[in-house]
Amino acid sequence: MTAARSVLVVGESLAGTTAVRHLRALGHAGPLTLVGAEEQGAYSRPPLSKVVLKDPSADETLGLALDGLDVDVIRSPAVAADTDRRTVTTADGRRIGYDALIVATGAGARRLAAPGQRGELVLRTLEDARRLRARLADATSAIVVGAGFLGMEVASACAARGIPVTVVDTDRPLERVLGAYLSAEITARAATHGIRFLQASGFATLTGDPVRGVALPDGTELTADLVVTCAGEIPCVDWLEGTGLAGRLGVGIDHACATTVPGVFAAGDVTYLRAQGTQPDRRAPFWSNAVAQGRAAAASALGLPLPGPAHDDYFWTEVTGLSVKVVGRLPLLGEPTAVQGSVADGRALLTWNHADGTSTAVAYGLRKPVAALRALAATSSSD
Ligand SMILES: Cc1cc2nc3c(=O)[nH]c(=O)nc-3n(C[C@H](O)[C@H](O)[C@H](O)COP(=O)(O)OP(=O)(O)OC[C@H]3O[C@@H](n4cnc5c(N)ncnc54)[C@H](O)[C@@H]3O)c2cc1C
């Protein structure tokens, strides 16, 4: 017998479907309900920027199936939760009871448009990707606001179509995530593919209605056929108002994905790991983390021991056709040790040793199984 008689998972995407699969795999035989907000059901987001923008046939390959599992799927967004009565209300008026609730509502794209300003393009959903792909078909110039992994992937999609693109940010490309060393290499490589980087002294403002450009604090104004905002994400927590579960960073969890409210657990991009010791509150909105947390939340909701750590520090991206796979702590400060190849040649295996004795391993433009990267990060650590 398991602790929770009925489990409700809100959010039908990676963290939510992982939790559902693991609830059943762990032996939960009671009622299981999954509440989703997107008509087409769960799908994988990383290919949206890497494949879907280029290839319409990819749209059909993204589904995250729940085949064979006995799950009551309701496609109507949650609009309120009452954690005293243990109920969640959906937009279509249903009130669903639960013994354990798993919050997996992810995040939405951060938008920069002023109230009422039309035509801002973002990339978070399949619908966004289809809209952007249609616009890419006849664009002759593009601006991407934000030089994080998503911004650089969108810029790469523009470059792959021969569209000159300017990426604008206050920090250099991928520097916040990967550090100065790899940022410099990636920026130089991107330039050879027609991706120009413009470092701004402050935040960009979108101009035009519909949006046609950006204005920078130093007075610079740029215009293009296409302006895409890739300025981060905002946790989807509106429906949790009044529960005390959520703040600006999302839903705070501990290492077992438990929130501060009894019977409520959370996983994926909607979460942040609450401060512990010298570690501050920390968001890690990446694929592998959503999977690890989906599993952990399922076990915790059933009162079972964790199947493994509730976080995973594997991350990957692709810039101008070059894949960068990372296992370990970020950002990467200083210079790496080259274990194999060289960054200048576009194929290298690198490690960074951190002050706390841990290491990060990076496969730069090199095919390397994640397991091998994990082993390299572990053997390079000094403790
Ligand atoms: C274009 C793109 C590329 C990416 N590439 C990479 C990559 O290369 N590597 C990597 O590690 N990560 C990548 N990511 C991040 C990765 O996709 C996310 O970490 C992952 O999708 C998080 O899963 P999630 O289930 O927590 O949240 P989400 O995928 O955001 O899903 C949350 C779901 O909850 C639904 N929802 C929201 N509010 C409600 C509500 N009130 N009621 C019911 N449902 C609701 C949403 O509609 C959504 O379907 C990428 C993300 C994007 C957008």
TrEMBL record:
It comes from the Bacteria. Keywords: FAD, Flavoprotein, Oxidoreductase. GO terms for molecular function: oxidoreductase activity, acting on NAD(P)H. Its cofactor is FAD. Transmembrane segments: none annotated. GO terms for cellular component: cytoplasm. Residues 6-294 form the FAD/NAD(P)-binding domain. This is Ferredoxin reductase. It comes from Streptomyces griseorubiginosus.
